């Protein structure tokens, strides 16, 4: 099976290799379903990231609030949505980041696609 996705510009493919890379990150983000976990993260982000064994690159992306880099580090958008929520971002905000559009442009694209 060909695992090269370079022919899909702008796409960060989430496959088995990315799932393995992102497992600690996604496990941490899943924990944000619980309010206590969100509070613990906000209280001491570094310690919380360490608890889940995030890589240095993942910890840096968390610190930098770089959702796109988190995707490159194996983050699943479904789990990263939990982290984005802590930041006050919604799925349309993240979609705009992924496409390089403003949020208004992204929303307009979605409306047009639905016509």
TrEMBL record:
<feature type="domain" description="Extradiol ring-cleavage dioxygenase LigAB LigA subunit">
    <location>
        <begin position="25"/>
        <end position="110"/>
    </location>
</feature>
<dbReference type="GO" id="GO:0018579">
    <property type="term" value="F:protocatechuate 4,5-dioxygenase activity"/>
</dbReference>
<keyword id="KW-0560">Oxidoreductase</keyword>
<keyword id="KW-0223">Dioxygenase</keyword>
<dbReference type="Pfam" id="PF07746">
    <property type="entry name" value="LigA"/>
</dbReference>
<dbReference type="InterPro" id="IPR011986">
    <property type="entry name" value="Xdiol_dOase_LigA"/>
</dbReference>
<dbReference type="InterPro" id="IPR036622">
    <property type="entry name" value="LigA_sf"/>
</dbReference>
<protein>
    <submittedName>
        <fullName>Protocatechuate 4,5-dioxygenase alpha chain</fullName>
        <ecNumber>1.13.11.8</ecNumber>
    </submittedName>
</protein>
